[in-house]
Amino acid sequence: MNILNHLSRVLFVAGFGMLVSGVSAQTTTTTKPYNIVNSAQIMGTGGIDYVTADSDARRLYVPRGNETLVFDLDTLKPAGSIASGHAHGVAIDSKSHHAFCSSSPVVMWDSQTLKTIKSIDVQGRPDGIFFEPQTERIYVFSHSAPNATVIDGKDGSIVGTIDLGGAPEQAQSDGRGHLYVDLEDQDQIAVVDVNTLKVTAQFALGGKGGGPAGLGLDAKNHILFALCREPATCVVLSADDGKILATLPIGKGTDGGGFNPATMEAFSS
């Protein structure tokens, strides 16, 4: 992942979105334009991958080099750092106030005090990371086996591993027992039962897009947005059965994405 590689500033900025109503999809512009509201020069050296906002604790996490930099989410002033090795991203369990980063080993810390709790040895090459709210578990994704290592967000113990059948990039949870993971090398989305840790379905993109590096989910309407690199396309699918509903053009080099239920917009970075 190289969403913000060699970035020297952290920007509060959003781009154009894609609006979905029911099962139809179309591009749209917003009534109010998006603007940069704040920026700050960050410290450290090296590339940056995932930038993660902890809305509850009002903190911003930026893994860079051998540490994860922490900023006040409102002022962007430095708030501390965690020695985390070459981490790619951060996931936070707001209930237990525990945070984790996708490094080898995975580092676990207290999201309120920023004090390290422990290191967790995992296999593979940690890349993406995701907090699943229903089970309060952390999913650490790797392009090599095991594709997913599942960690209990409360105590940091390893719950199990999952063979996803491909190289995962990003995940989304519907909060009802299903975790969706895009498989970049298989042009598929794997569906995982978060209770059994078993893959229950594989949704193929049907040649409409390849190399899905980002994933958004409209959980209310059961719609997935697979953000693909080749061609630069968003493939819109039903989260229930994987039926392809539409395709939409996006910018080149996508490496992440999401969905904002408040504005009904899906975003590709």
How would you characterize the overall build of this protein?
By secondary structure, the protein is mainly beta. It has two domains: 14-35 and 170-269, Methylamine Dehydrogenase, Chain H, CATH 2.130.10.10; 42-163, 7 Propeller (Methylamine Dehydrogenase, Chain H), CATH 2.130.10. It is 0% helix and 51% strand. It has strands at 9-11, 18-21, 24-27, 39-41, 52-54, 59-64, 67-72, 78-83, 90-93, 98-101, 106-110, 116-120, 126-132, 137-142, 148-152, 158-162, 168-173, 178-183, 188-193, 198-204, 210-218, 223-230, 233-238, 244-249, 257-260, 265-268. The strands form seven sheets. A four-stranded antiparallel beta sheet has the order 3-2-26-25, with no helix packed on it. A hairpin with a 2-residue loop joins β22 (223-230) and β23 (233-238).
